[in-house]
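tokens incoming
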């Protein structure tokens, strides 16, 4: 393993591509599912506790999206 700064382009032998883009896609999908779940819990099920749990999960997923996007931007 080399020490110091990697100098090759992303995806080359010197600097392999990471799975952060795939993690970002999964995080966006998860946030979408949680948002739909929160809306359905509020409108269809009329369950306040379930709505709060789903909304908290949605905000957590949004925080995950932000963190993965920052890591992806820092990697480039």
């Amino acid at each position: 393993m080399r020490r110091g700064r990697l100098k090759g382009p992303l995806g080359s032998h010197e600097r392999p591509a990471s799975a952060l883009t795939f993690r970002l896609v999964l995080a966006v999908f998860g946030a979408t599912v949680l948002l739909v779940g929160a809306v359905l819990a509020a409108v269809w099920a009329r369950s306040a506790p379930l709505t709060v749990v789903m909304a908290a999960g949605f905000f957590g997923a949004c925080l995950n999206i932000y963190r993965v996007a920052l890591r992806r931007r820092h990697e480039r």
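note: Helices lie at 20-43, 48-75.
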